[in-house]
Specification:
Order of helices and strands: EHHHHHHHHEHHEEH
Mean pLDDT: 76
Structural class: mainly alpha
Strand order of the largest sheet: 1-2
Distance between the termini: 18 Å
Largest sheet: 2 strands, antiparallel
Number of helices: 11
Length: 365
């Protein structure tokens, strides 16, 4: 029974953690950019604005937490481990051998954990990456046709309405004005879909970061071996699981909530769009009559325009109530910070900072 420790290679592993931190920083910059679609994108009928801000804030805070863990907490802890193995006194070497006996494996837990990996990672002092997280961070380009297709005229008479003719002319040169107004009223469904796609990309990026993390932990065996290393490896695999369960999967659920928000925005718009068309037609008819100087504006407004505006107000109230219910989906998504692990065999494997207990056990010998 013994151990091996090579200082230069171990130092290289610490540098790898800094690279993981850079990937996490890129991930935060990405979601900060593509998760911001502004007030007009949220829509005046859309109650999601506060929930959206809270959700993005949670994600950014979680990425800061993970960045600090890898580049500060765990990085600093490696220096403590390094200090144990660089001690040259006889009693220090004896304590390291005692540490090996303390972490004597009593099961094949690490072997089973390795067997569940998607691929076998060989020890390597060069610490090559096996995934490219930043390649996931592409600009979202969601297909709005998934939730909304611009309607065609229902019948021949629609072709003679004022609002249809205006929309037909303008769409030759720009976006449909009704869609533009509807998005400002109900919420920009394209922005919601793009945000959902950005969240999916972010989740895949973090998953790749954790794939690289465990690959590097496996590669570390090229420069550090023994029972203490095995305990270190097994404990950090739990960190990977915590990040997947507490960060990646909640972000994926949040992406689905944004797709629901897109569908909700379309539902709100489609409930109001016909009424908006009636109002446009009524005002257009009023304008033509005014040109002929034979029109009672107040009477016409009360008869043709006001009922539609009242109807629109009622639809808006219904949409607002529905949005308040959907807001819960956003606020219930929780991202979990890293925590300690109580494992079998060696009892406490991670301390309350999410660090393997190698140094603590050594100091208590």
């Amino acid at each position: 029974m013994g151990y091996e420790f090579e200082n230069v290679g171990f130092t290289a592993f610490a540098t790898v953690l800094e690279h993981l931190g850079e990937d996490l920083h890129s991930a935060k910059t990405y979601i900060t950019t593509h998760g911001d679609f502004g007030f007009t994108g949220e829509g005046i009928l859309n109650i999601f604005s506060t929930a959206h801000s809270d959700a993005m804030g949670k994600i950014e805070s979680q990425l800061d937490h993970l960045h600090e863990y890898f580049t500060d907490t765990l990085h600093g802890y490696l220096g403590q481990i390094q200090g144990l193995y660089l001690e040259q006194e006889d009693d220090s070497r004896e304590k390291l051998l005692e540490l090996e006996r303390l972490f004597q494996p009593d099961s094949d837990e690490l072997d089973r954990a390795r067997a569940s990996d998607s691929e076998t990672i060989e020890p390597s002092a060069g610490f090559p990456t096996v995934a490219e997280p930043e390649e996931r961070l592409v600009a979202p380009n969601a297909d709005a046709d998934d939730v909304y297709i611009q309607p065609e005229p229902n019948n021949i008479l629609d072709h003679f309405s004022v609002q249809y003719q205006v929309r037909w002319i303008i769409t030759w040169f720009a976006d449909d004005p009704m869609d533009w107004l509807g998005k400002r009223f109900a919420g920009d469904w394209e922005a919601f879909l793009n945000c959902a796609e950005a969240l999916d990309n972010l989740a895949e990026c973090i998953r790749d970061i954790m794939t690289n993390f465990i690959a590097h932990v496996e590669q570390l065996e090229a420069v550090w071996s023994g029972n203490a290393y095995s305990a270190f490896n097994f404990a950090l695999r739990d960190i990977r699981s915590q990040v997947i369960d507490g960060t990646v999967e909640p972000i994926e659920r949040l992406a689905e909530n944004y797709r629901d928000a897109a569908r909700s925005a379309v539902d709100d718009y489609q409930a109001i769009e016909p009424i908006m068309g009636v109002v446009v037609d009524a005002i257009g008819t009023a304008g033509l009559s005014l040109l002929k100087n034979s029109f009672n504006m107040r009477s016409y407004f009360n008869e043709a325009v006001k009922p539609s505006l009242d109807d629109a107000t009622g639809k808006a109230a219904d949409a607002l109530a529905a949005a308040e219910l959907k807001e819960v989906d956003f606020t219930e998504v929780e991202l979990e910070e890293l925590k300690e692990l109580r494992g079998s065999g060696n009892n406490l494997m991670l301390d309350d900072q999410g660090l393997p207990v190698i140094v603590d056990r050594y100091e208590n010998l």
